[in-house]
Write a structure and sequence with these properties.
Number of helices: 4
Radius of gyration: 28 Å
Helix content: 10-25%
Shape: rod-shaped
Distance between the termini: 20 Å
Number of strands: 9
Largest sheet: 5 strands, antiparallel
Number of domains: 2
Strand content: 35-45%
Strand order of the largest sheet: 1-2-5-6-9
């Protein structure tokens, strides 16, 4: 849009463009802690399972030959509170299996706002001055496996899984 501010002397021009996109992605099959694992009971996991590596906090696969790492969690010793808080942030399983027990349909989101403003001033027949301002503000949320989740004891939500959140502002 545009028009004169002062007839044949000062003119303005402005534009705005907004774009919104929400796009569903394919269904992801995930593995999340079972109801028993959420309380620290890992007895349902086979002895030489790599799941122990994730949920029991073991750092090296070689340690898994002795099940002592996870067996201590089957006894009266509870899981550390910080592990329990993180485990509770994962969604509940939707099937009864130990693996591939949860499904998500993440959504890709993008918002883009762009605008320009310009003023032209005709000083005389041979001289013109103009000023222009442009701004672009783009927010892109590439979906993570589970989206943002609340972890008890943390003040901000965390992303569990892979994600990319990017904001670009150009004045």
């Amino acid at each position: 849009m545009g028009g004169p501010i002062i007839h044949n002397k000062v003119f303005f021009f402005a534009d705005y463009e907004g774009f919104r996109k929400l796009q569903g992605t394919t269904t992801d099959v995930n593995t999340v802690p079972t109801v028993a694992e959420r309380t620290g009971d890992f007895s349902g996991i086979p002895r030489r399972s790599t799941i122990r590596l994730v949920w029991c906090g073991a750092r090296h696969r070689e340690r898994l030959h002795s099940a002592a790492i996870c067996r201590k969690y089957h006894s009266s010793e509870p899981l550390r509170p910080r592990y329990l808080r993180v485990i509770q942030a994962y969604p509940l399983p939707s099937t009864s299996g130990l693996t591939n027990n949860q499904f998500t349909n993440p959504v890709l989101g993008q918002n883009n706002d762009t605008g320009d403003g310009r003023i032209d001033w005709n000083l005389d027949a041979n001289n013109t001055i103009f000023g222009r301002f442009s701004r672009q503000d783009t927010l892109t949320n590439t979906p993570s496996t589970f989206g943002f989740r609340t972890v008890p004891g943390l003040s901000i939500p965390v992303s569990l899984g892979n994600s990319t959140n990017m904001r670009v502002v150009r004045p």
